[in-house]
Amino acid sequence: MFELSDLPYAPDALAPTISEATMRAHHGKHHAKYVETLNELLEKAGRAPESLEAVVRDADGRPEERKLFNNAAQTWNHAFFWAAMSPRRLEAKGALGVAITRDFGGIDALRSALVEEGVGHFASGWLWLAAEGERLKVLSTHDAATLAASDTTVPLLVCDLWEHAYYVDHKQDRKGFLEDWFDALPNWELAAAQYTAALGRGKPWRHPGPVKV
Prior knowledge:
By secondary structure, the protein is mainly alpha-helical. The protein is built from 8 helices and 3 strands. It folds into 2 domains: 20-83, Helix Hairpins (Orthogonal Bundle), CATH 1.10.287; 94-198, Iron/manganese superoxide dismutase, C-terminal domain (minor pseudopilin epsh fold, 3-Layer(bab) Sandwich), CATH 3.55.40.
């Protein structure tokens, strides 16, 4: 079975952009429910997968496994979302910083591109900074859709666009949430490591594997 991943910081560490109340509900209830349902579905099917990425890959695009995909992908997306944030304000440096300047024109232009994509995304989903080889791109995915098992695209950062991620703290102001999020919370150290993996020098982030009970 898979376990609910621990937060890599205290529940109040991302305030005021994301409050403790939001974090406790989002991680301890929303994320936890996805993990619980995922495990129930795997147990019912008699499956013992080696990795969460394998579950996502196997279920993707199969209508009869849509519920399994949704819960597996949401489990992965949330765990990566927590990892993709830091209570310390970091900067994009090194090869990643160079790539941001090359592909977007600088960090401010990347901020604008991410915010524009997130604001323009209709309904629920996820906002990504990703790499295809050395090239960076901004994209959004709907509902539970994920980059977890992509063969070509490595996620560097992700931000949750579901309303429960920001509504308590920012109400309907998704734009304000995304601006505040980009200014304060991205884990550029993780993003740099992910970019190194996209260049073929190292392995990308993976969800912790299942544990025996």
